[in-house]
Design a protein that fits this description.
This protein is of the alpha/beta class. It has 3 domains: 174 residues, P-loop containing nucleotide triphosphate hydrolases (Rossmann fold); 85 residues, no CATH class; 233 residues, Nucleotidyltransferase, domain 5. It is built from 19 helices and 21 strands. The C terminus is likely disordered.
């Protein structure tokens, strides 16, 4: 175990007392070689003792002295321990952070401590450009390590061989080197630990991610979010890499006066009971922030920051750790959050549909936990689905495993009844499966579901197979009208939906409106989550955040709203058939931003209070 020592428990955290404690240590060491040796050993055993007793930090924005003792608060203590645990266990770690929470300083001091007090470590520190690795600016990584050594007494400061982007610790034979991501990252080299600063801003992040996989078992990725689709976002959501969150609400200089507003009760809920807000404090009651790890959480410091920054995107990116909010979102995050907590439920049934591969006719539903087919409607005892009008849509991938093909189905109430997701079916086989699903969801006259798909790339192969199977209750290109030609020939209008920028924007606008008015009810939480990845592009069109990431050579369409587009197409088919929701259902429609909207939002927010109880 790295840093098992408890010496830091003797170090006072109040600033004046801490400075006095440091002064006493320096005087003690100055009078005794044995004291120097004992203090060096205490530093070797305990990184928190080393930092709180001998390290300093610098901030040009700080009032008064810009150079102050590094006195850690609890979340930083935890961060030091977590980083070193992952170094010891040789596991990677991703650190999502609000701005100015000390994450980069913590990482730099971890690297310095490893090399300063422990033998034969090789640390590799990476930033997006060379000047941010080892430059004259305090923003540079090596500047921070040099800063640490500058303020240490001679008996503690390491003996080093200092070159550009290189520090050799002579007493331990350990080294810290640096690289910019514009260089050949890690090729041919090996490291005990490799750290990436502000990784979301690296333009070739996906290539760096792949190219450094064999450089170190322990890679530390540190950053604020700049939007979905980045390599940093990929690491935070891969479900494998451990994650550490450093949020502003953990900072004792920012979390004084934590509160939320309870709309239903009509009063402010004070989480920090000791804080005096004074008379007439203007509490914010709009339900923000809507995203990030602690939605709805605010403080007087946070309120001031929101006003001064003047940009929701700036706040989402630099304070909230809200990856979707850090882009110009197309779907309203408050609406999506409310819909998820109000309407999303686990499927009633999941499994596989067995079908005849030659005719595309369904054979039987086979219940399998974790199956590709999710149903929010119970099959009949016959193993079939109750006959009624249904509407479907599909988005097709190549089936290589990089991105899934997906089909969605709605009923006449506009409620989601099915979702099928599979990344390993080629377009032809997926076409047979979708035709079988359409016949499974047939009406009382025996007609299959009205169906549309995205006719682009693999969608052309998919569409050709649908036609070969003889399925005709589909959308055709001409005027985007539902046509059923008696004698289909290649000269007739082409089947499928064509995603021109204008068609795509209109499709998503219609879905957004249907969700906001509750005309369309989505049960799948993953589908609503993907809605938040759509944003306005510079040209005013709507794009998925991953489409222009541009630097992922392994999957050009990873996570491009695979569930959302087919949901939009299913809703488009429902509208074409003139779906109307019953009167009692219409009464449930809620206008975003209204009192009723905020009351419903507060109902689900109360379920989140346990995290701060």
């Amino acid at each position: 175990m790295l840093s098992p020592g408890k010496w830091h428990e003797q170090v006072p955290k109040e600033r004046d007392k801490n400075l006095k404690f440091r002064g006493n240590l320096y005087r003690l060491a100055g009078a005794s070689k044995q004291a120097q040796a004992d203090l060096r050993e205490a530093c070797r055993q305990d990184i928190l003792f080393y930092v709180n007793a001998f390290c300093w930090t610098f901030s040009p924005k700080r009032r008064g002295s810009k150079v102050v003792p590094f006195i850690t608060w609890p979340s930083q203590d935890h961060a030091f321990k977590v980083i070193l645990e992952h170094v010891a266990e040789q596991k990677s770690l991703v650190i999502e952070k609000s701005r100015d929470e000390g994450a980069t300083w913590i990482f730099c001091y971890c690297m310095d401590w490893l090399c300063h007090f422990h033998d034969y470590n090789q640390c590799l520190m990476v930033s997006r450009v060379g000047d941010l690795v080892d430059g004259k600016t305090p923003d540079a990584l090596f500047w921070k390590i040099d800063f640490a050594h500058k303020f240490q007494p001679d008996w503690l400061a390491p003996k080093t061989n200092r070159l550009k982007k290189y520090i050799e610790y002579l007493d331990t034979s350990s080294t810290t080197t640096g690289q910019a991501t514009t260089e050949d990252m890690g090729i041919g080299g090996r490291a005990t630990v490799m750290g990436f600063d502000e990784f979301s801003r690296v333009p070739n992040g996906h290539e760096v991610l792949e190219g450094t996989r064999d450089t170190a078992y322990c890679r530390i990725f540190i950053s604020t979010h700049t939007g979905p689709g980045t390599a940093f976002h990929k690491v935070t959501t891969n479900g494998i890499t451990d994650k550490l969150v450093l949020h502003w609400s953990q900072n004792p200089n920012k979390n004084q006066g934590l509160y939320r507003y309870n709309v239903e009760a009509g009063k402010v809920e004070i989480l920090d009971k000791k804080y005096d807000f004074g008379a007439g404090y203007n509490f914010v009651m709009d339900g923000s922030p809507s995203g990030g790890p602690f939605p709805g959480l605010r403080s007087p410091w946070y309120d001031r920051e929101c006003v001064e920054r003047g940009s929701k995107r700036d706040v989402a990116q630099n304070l909230d750790i809200d990856v979707q909010g850090s882009s110009h979102q197309f779907f309203d995050p408050l609406t999506i959050r409310l819909l998820k907590n109000t309407y999303c439920t686990p499927p009633l049934w999941e499994g596989e549909l067995h079908y005849d591969a030659d005719s595309g006719r369904p054979l039987e539903l086979v219940k399998v936990e974790g199956g590709h087919l999710k149903l929010w409607i119970n099959p009949l005892h016959t193993g079939r689905i109750k006959s009624a009008p249904y509407f479907g849509g599909a988005d097709i991938s190549t089936g290589s495993g990089a991105t899934p093909s997906c089909a969605q189905f709605l009923n006449t109430l506009g409620e989601q009844v099915a979702e099928y997701v599979n990344a390993h079916l080629d377009p032809k086989m997926f076409a047979v499966l979708c035709v079988a699903l359409c016949w499974l969801f047939k009406n009382e006259e025996g007609e299959g579901a009205l169906f549309a798909w995205e006719q682009q790339g693999p969608g052309a192969i998919f569409g050709k197979k649908v036609i070969e199977l003889g399925y005709r209750n589909i959308l055709y290109k001409e005027n985007e009208q539902m046509l059923v030609p008696k004698n289909f020939t290649p000269a007739d209008p082409q089947p499928g939906w064509y995603p021109s920028p204008e068609n795509r924007r209109r499709l998503l606008e219609e879905l957004r409106s249907a969700l906001a008015t509750r005309a369309c009810t989505v049960r799948s939480e993953q589908t609503l989550d993907e809605c938040l990845d759509f944003k306005y592009g510079a040209d005013g069109n709507v794009e998925h955040a991953g489409e222009k990431a541009g630097d992922d050579p392994t999957a050009a369409r990873i996570n491009h709203g695979d569930r959302v587009i087919p949901m939009g197409l299913a809703w488009k088919m429902a509208v074409k058939r003139g779906v109307n929701r019953p009167a009692e259902k219409k009464a449930e429609q809620v206008k975003p931003g209204s009192l009723h909207f905020r009351i419903l939002l507060e109902e689900q927010r109360r379920r989140e209070e346990q995290a701060w109880a």
